[in-house]
């Protein structure tokens, strides 16, 4: 079983709460036999547009290939102003062509794949983002199983705080380890073999 985590952190360098949470989840997935790759979207030149390939210099096509080759796709995002990061929105826009194919009566290329959502941020924003992403997943054929969200809400993750990676990992394991385990159990149960 293969998983791709699409990491929507906006941080090019330095500690990212969302990246650390994604690494935490990826480590747990690997222990359960799920080969997991984290794709840091900020490191790729994903051009604006709604097609799968926007031409020369577009970094999206190889990422799309990874998504299509995966059994599990995880959208990982911080909350910014009650919304997912702009990079996650860019992914949604770039997957629009797959939705167009469905509208034309073609088979959904993402059907049979499971999705999950990883969020760092405030609670109201998390609920809003989960709702929007769940709606998008439904439109493109991704299955969001029960309990397939992991939202970490901790004041030490605020923009003006500077927790260490070790502090974050300890917090994630102590307070969110069972939630992550349940998420993985659901993905394994529902992902097409």
Helix-strand pattern: EHEHEHHEHEH
Major sheet characteristics: 5 strands, parallel
Would you tell me which CATH topology applies? Rossmann fold
The SS-based structural class is alpha/beta
State the CATH superfamily name: Flavodoxin domain
Radius of gyration: 16 Å
Number of helices: 6
Gross morphology is globular
Q: Whole-number average pLDDT?
A: 93
**Beta fraction:** 15-25%
- Number of individual domains: 1
Strand arrangement, major sheet: 2-1-3-4-5
Tell me what the CATH architecture is: 3-Layer(aba) Sandwich
Number of strands: 5
Distance between the termini: 7 Å
Helix content class = 40-55%
The top-level CATH class is: Alpha Beta
Contiguous runs where pLDDT drops below 50 for at least 5 residues? none
Please, could you describe this protein's structure?
- The structure is a single chain.
- This protein is globular.
- Strands 2-1-3-4-5 form a five-stranded parallel sheet, with helices on both faces.
- The protein contains six helices and five strands.
- The model has no long low-confidence stretch (mean pLDDT 93).
- The protein has a single domain (2-190), classed as Flavodoxin domain (Rossmann fold, 3-Layer(aba) Sandwich).
- The relative contact order is 0.18.
- The N and C termini lie close together (7 Å).
- The chain is of the alpha/beta class and 193 residues long.
- Helix content is 44%, strand content 16%.
- Helix 1 packs across helix 6.
Furnish the topology, listing elements before pairings.
Layout (H helix, E strand, L loop, with lengths): L1 E6 L9 H15 L3 E6 L19 H9 L3 E7 L7 H9 L1 H8 L10 E7 L2 H18 L8 E4 L12 H26 L3
Parallel strand pairs: 1-2, 1-3, 3-4, 4-5
């Amino acid at each position: 079983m293969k998983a791709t985590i699409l990491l929507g952190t906006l941080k090019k360098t330095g500690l990212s709460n969302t990246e650390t949470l994604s690494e935490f989840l990826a480590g747990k997935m690997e222990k359960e036999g799920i080969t997991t790759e984290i794709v840091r979207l900020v490191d790729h030149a994903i051009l604006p547009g709604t097609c799968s390939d926007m031409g020369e210099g577009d970094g999206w096509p190889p990422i799309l290939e990874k998504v299509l080759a995966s059994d599990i796709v995880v959208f990982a995002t911080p909350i910014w102003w009650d919304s997912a990061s702009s990079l996650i929105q860019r992914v949604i826009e770039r997957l629009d062509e797959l939705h167009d194919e469905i509208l034309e009566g073609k088979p959904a290329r993402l059907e049979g794949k499971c999705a999950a959502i990883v969020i760092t941020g405030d609670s109201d924003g998390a609920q809003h983002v989960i709702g929007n992403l769940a709606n998008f997943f439904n439109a493109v054929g991704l299955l969001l199983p029960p309990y397939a969200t992991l939202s970490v809400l901790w004041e030490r993750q605020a923009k003006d705080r500077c927790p260490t990676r070790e502090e974050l990992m300890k917090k994630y394991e102590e307070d969110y380890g069972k939630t992550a385990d349940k998420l993985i159990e659901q993905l394994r149960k529902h992902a097409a073999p």
